[in-house]
Predict the structure of Formate dehydrogenase subunit gamma.
Amino acid sequence: MSMSITHPGAARRLLTLLVLLTGLVLSQLALAQQADPGREAAFAVPAVDAELWRQVKEGETGPNYRDSRAESTYNLVNTSGETWRQIRERWVSPFGAIAVLGMMAAIVLFYLMVGRKHLDEPRTGRKLLRWSLVVRSLHWTVATLFILLAITGLNLAYGKTLLRPLFGDGAWSAMMSGTKLIHNYLGPLFGILLVILLLRLLSHNIPKAHDLQWFAKGGGLVGKGHPDAGFANGGEKVWYWLLATAGLAVIASGFVLDFPNYGQGRDTMQWAGIIHAVGALGLTAVALGHIYIGTVGTEGSLEGMTTGYVDESWAKEHHNLWYDEVKDQAIPEDQLAEHRQGSQGDEPAPRSG
């Protein structure tokens, strides 16, 4: 396994900056959590105090504060809403930040300690078709929507704590209006396209016995040689099934939040919000690892999703079982370039993905 560390000085400065930013964000979140837990509610509804909560729990409050499940009288102050707020502020938000920032720090440390994974053997100059144009188009559309939704979702979750003090109420409110609009309208489109992509890739992601050996060898980081892998290796299959489970839960809960006019009550909306936040923050953290491995982390991986083709050496090293199935379809690079210059298509060989 050939690894290299490039520009260690710059990488160390990047790591230092990341650690400082991580400390800043976590300190802000910690301060927010240590503040008076009733501050947010008190700002929205003045005079929310222990006496009022006693009245709410005992049913002594008037119509403006009644703790009822009737749609017309389920008003601002209620024990269910306070439970939701506590879960969101004390657990989901801080641990979500730790997961995302922790993954960022882990990636930087891994790059500094291990470096980029280069190919063990020189490139042969012969190409194998890995991803069709349809799959690549779906992938990049879904990936772009995912990034936009992640950025806007993080802004919705943490913008009030981090950005409002920096930019002031006016700029922050305009930013949040745009964020909410983007998130709400792109979410359903992302959900539909993700389901289509998952169905398209299902046959490549059925778990196999050799996937256990892939995990035992840490994807090639443990021991000598590379573990067996078919079209998709064990790590790629885990990412696929996370999208097919947690991803679909995020989509379903997002639809509940996006369309609150189909009979769901406030309790349903509150739990949908918790499920949506937990799933989205978890997927965002894992997606950072997926992006790293598929771009700067591994030589040759990004080429497959940009051009559709991978070099024989890459296929043999990372997906040897798939390579054995399609190696007779390899095309010389110059022949592939001539084909692209003379036609509109980019798939002279039988489709592999």
User: Anything to note?
Assistant: Residues 164-201 form the longest helix (38 residues).
